[in-house]
Amino acid sequence: MEMRVALRVTNGVVSVWTTIRRKVISYHCGLHFHLLDASSSSWLIIHHHSSSTSSKLIANQGLLMIIVMDMSVNMRHKHLLVALYLWALISSLLPASSNALVRIGLKKRPLDLQTIKAARIAREGKPQDLGSSDEDIVPLKNYLDAQYYGVIGIGSPPQNFTVIFDTGSSNLWVPSSKCYFSLACYFHTRYKSSKSSTYTAIGTSASITYGSGSISGFFSQDNVEVGDLVVKNQEFIEATKEGSLTFVIAKFDGLLGLGFQEISVGNATPLQTMSEQDLLSDDVFSFWLNRDTNSDVGGELVFGGVDSNHYKGKHTYVPVTKKGYWQFEMGDLIIGNQSTGECEGGCAAIVDSGTSLLTGPTTTVTVLNHAIGAEGVVSAECKTVVSQYGDLIWDLLISGAQPGQVCKQLGLCIFNGSKYVSTGIETVVEKEGKEGSSVGNGALCTACEMAVVWAQNQLKQKGTKEKVLSYISELCDSLPSPAGESIVECSSLSSMPNVTFTIGDKPFVLTPNQYVLKTGEGVAEVCVSGFTAYDIPPPTGPLWILGDVFMGAYHTVFDFGDLQVGFAEAA
């Protein structure tokens, strides 16, 4: 943003012309300030009654300082105060420039195949812990596949920690020097409260559950350095127990959550504190993730606005539909030129910097991976449903039966008070005291529900029964594997289709080079699908999680002032 400034001194009257917005300024320290419109800009007129006054204008990093110096010794202290006042006054009036942005460089850790497999195993292993009808806080991740990190400082003098800047959580936590019995703490930097002059004890206990483990500890308070910002008296968790192998092998010390208060443990989130202390020129932060594998720069997190060098064109903004995660409504999902039919009526999605891959419901991810030729696992239950119940599913859908009732009518699913479960496949374990408690899907029930969704989508495309059932049988061979064998042929990238996500009625295209992750080199090179299945139960799910695979392709703006998310093509 270009800013023009002019200064004029006439008979003790200092006139400053700049592009600041109109604002009435009150009488102060013997000077009178007021603004007059001048050709769509403004004049700041400073009236002073001494002829022995000189003025100096200093412009530095987009801020103005007017120093009014009086030659009289008796007036020196008075005009020193005037100088300080003017500096604060005009600085607050001027628009923020790009130099006022707070920048944090991000480091990128390359993914390897074993890490991806471990992440998927951990993610698949805990579906029963993902929320309930009366608690809408869902552990969506396990961080095994997290790639991007940055450094913050806690305390005075600052103790540095490598953290994930995570839009999918809301707390700040780091290992504590009082963590004695968790192996993970000994592999990472630990916070020492005795070394900080600004530490304040709180002591309230806290714990956070993730997809593959948990951390627990207690709240403390200290100053936190984030880039050039100093967030004073920020509450954070000193972790005294890190209960998972995830944290032992993690490349990060802790997390700085950039989500909303609704999913936080405790009260003060980092974003909330920054806003309350008026540290940012705008209640916005943005992520640019560098996908150039040959670059030493992993990316950049910018607080207070955006860097125009990080994106092309304009951002498309969509409103946050549910505070907690950065959740919004996503439209149709298209493979090549063909709609999947999954999100025609809208799908819930969140954008999450703490997740590397792109996750969605098994039914849709199976279709995606089948379309790109990804290897999966053969599901015997899925094959059974197609061979024994395929004709009946077709007949029921043709006759106008509600898709959600088909598997119940076939006797493959029963309703337990809150959802359908398999009959005779596994024991239903109910949680005491909760009517209609959440239980895991049985294999046949799950397979039937997927087959119904696939058949319904194919019916919309006017497919014949034989073709539809044959297609569903092929999908049964392509179910995403929890062990991570969603491998594609590296030589086939050029023939793979684009995958398009519709956001704000605009298409956001991912090319094969963007959604396929390459690991290893030469003969050891392996290509892995960036789409992974993760079924999140109601009321939070079904839910799409757009992780770094998507954020690498599209510069992302998080506006917590106007509650919206923006996407533009990354530069």
UniProtKB/TrEMBL annotation:
Active site residues of this protein: 166, 352
Disulfide bond among the record's keywords?
Answer: yes
The Peptidase A1 domain, residue ranges: 148-568
Its transmembrane ranges are: 81-102
Keywords carried by this UniProt record: Aspartyl protease, Disulfide bond, Glycoprotein, Hydrolase, Membrane, Protease, Signal, Transmembrane, Transmembrane helix, Zymogen
Q: What are the GO MF terms of this UniProt record?
A: aspartic-type endopeptidase activity
Disulfide topology: 179-185
The family assignment reads:
Belongs to the peptidase A1 family.
Q: What is this protein called?
A: Peptidase A1 domain-containing protein
Q: Which organism is it from?
A: Malus domestica (Apple)
